[in-house]
Design a protein that fits this description.
about 325 residues, mainly alpha, elongated
Length: about 325
């Protein structure tokens, strides 16, 4: 897994699945499709994993089994592909994954584009107040290189903090670490609810794919909870075993669990009663995908405003400090006369 997952990597994965969807929909077998992708992959880094998958396929493993290579693909992808194998809808599952990663790439690009100008403003202010003004006010006795080093060292904690936040948010970690991060981020306004909505969207998507593939409902819920990448959802569903064995339905357990919103519980119950659970799950996936993406964008927007405010306050403080020092010097000179 990469240190940081960038929009470009999301786009490459979307292209990988898009080509697989086109080739398999045209009647080309998975092995031949992967061989073609190995020759013309969306990125050079895909060649080795694809070769490993092809080797495992030649040994008689299924596609979903072959994809377990050095955590190359997340559980979400592997579970969806396994459902496509069982249902004979691999091309549809590849297309769904392509759309999913295209949306993630678009969302990440929007967040980054909102933060570009505030980042520029912070660097500009640091350059002016830590390099230009001290250099000009020293009557050219200060070392310009030392002032640059001072500015870089001042900004270094910000770089480290941003890098740490991105790393802990995107990199592959163990269950305990992800559980800690989930408990820390959930209370954050917009961000916490947005992450929960996206986890529910992933759960609904995997559930729909598995149920359409004919997977037992209990097994489907367990797989979907793992693929949701939410430790809280996984713990909740894992605790249903005895209740399901006693004859309670998933709809009853969803309705009695505080981790599922009322909208999710009501729609799931309606789908289970009407026998149109696959359609209901598809709608739930779309609904929570849109809700989660919207809240993450709002969070990014307010983060931008907060950075603007901090930058403006820092600039105002430096300006006041500069003029206060200037007037003190003038006052001292006047008093000397």
């Amino acid at each position: 897994m990469p240190f940081i997952v960038s929009p470009r990597q999301f786009t490459q994965r979307a292209e990988f699945y898009r080509q697989l969807a086109q080739l398999t929909a045209a009647g080309i077998g998975v092995t031949h499709a992967l061989e073609q992708l190995k020759s013309h992959p969306p990125a050079h880094s895909y060649r080795v994993p694809i070769q490993k998958v092809l080797e495992k396929l030649m040994q008689g493993q299924t596609l979903s089994e072959s994809l377990h290579y050095d955590n190359w693909l997340p559980d979400f992808d592997v579970t969806i592909i396994a459902a496509g194998e069982r249902s004979g809808r691999l091309d549809s599952c590849f297309r769904m994954l392509s759309d999913y990663y295209s949306q993630r790439a678009s969302l990440t690009k929007q967040i980054i584009s909102r933060l570009i100008y505030p980042a520029f403003l912070i660097h500009f202010a640091a350059f002016v107040f830590l390099v230009v003004l001290p250099f000009a006010g020293s009557q050219f006795h200060a070392s310009l290189s030392l002032l640059f080093i001072k500015a870089v060292l001042t900004l270094l904690p910000i770089y480290l903090l941003v890098g740490l936040i991105i790393f802990v948010s995107q990199s592959k970690h163990g269950e305990k670490w992800r559980a800690v991060m989930e408990s820390v981020l959930n209370p954050v306004p917009m961000l916490g609810s947005g992450r929960r909505a996206l986890a529910l969207a992933r759960l609904a998507a995997v559930l729909e794919a598995l149920i359409s593939a004919g997977v037992n409902i209990v097994e489907a819920w367990n797989f979907a909870a793992i693929a949701s990448n939410s430790p809280a959802l996984r713990r909740t569903v894992s605790g249903w075993k005895s209740s399901l064995a006693a004859g309670r339905t998933p709809a009853e357990l969803v309705g009695s669990s505080s981790i599922f919103p009322t909208t999710f519980a009501n729609l799931y119950h309606s789908g289970e009663v009407s026998g149109k659970l696959d359609e209901t799950l598809r709608r739930l996936h779309i609904f929570y995908e849109e809700e989660g993406s919207y809240k993450i964008q709002i969070m990014a927007q307010w983060t931008t405003y907060a950075i603007y405010l901090l930058a403006v306050l820092a600039i105002a403080y430096k300006i006041i400090q500069f003029y206060t020092g200037y007037f003190n010097q003038v006052s001292n000179v006047m008093n000397g006369f």
